[in-house]
Structure formats: structure tokens, C-alpha cells
Amino acid sequence: MVFYFPVSAMISLLAILETGEAIEIAAIGREGALGTRFGARPQLSFARAVVQLAGTALRIAISQFHQAATMSSAIADLAMSANDVLVANLQTVSSLQCHARTRSALGAVATSCARST
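The structure assignment produced for this chain is given below.
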């Protein structure tokens, strides 16, 4: 597994809704990285990565990245900050999904009630 650091490319992270629709939860360019999930072991992906703008990117093996983060608190802090932003974006997407389901359910009830009157 590797981490990617776009130099001249742009990558979008998409959350896939239950309906199959996709919502962009992050755009990663030269200021960010893809795959910087910082933890003791690799995690399952919660999003789909799509290259929006082709270009170049640097890559580093997960083991080398973890070694660098262990030796540099600045690298570790940046990786953790990136995780925090993605988690916040995922919480927003979860709220949107819940709101959409509630709205659909209320719409169905309202339609049903309107038909019965």
C-alpha cells in the first residue's frame, strides 16, 4: 500500500450514497495526500478516489510514511489533521443521507395522507 502526494494532479474523494449517487467529500491537490489514514494498521476505504485532473504525483510506501511520521511530529500532525477533516466531511455526508431519507419518508407520508382525505 502507498500514499500519493499530487504535484500537478487533482483527486476527488467520493462518498457513495445508498441510492448509488456520489457526493464529493474532498478534493486533494498539491497541498494534500491520498491514503494518509494514520493508524496502527490499514483500514478499509470509506470513499472512492477519482482522478479529476491528470498530472504527476509522488508516492511513498506506507511503512516509510509511518517511519517518517514517527520521527517527525510535524508529519504526524499533518496526517492526523487530514484525517480529522475527512471525518468531519463524512459526518456531513451522513447527516445529508439521514436528512434525505427522512425527507423522502415524510414526503411519502404526506402523499399518503393527502390521498386519504
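Interim note for the steering committee: The chain has two helices and five strands. Residues 73-116 form the longest helix (44 residues).
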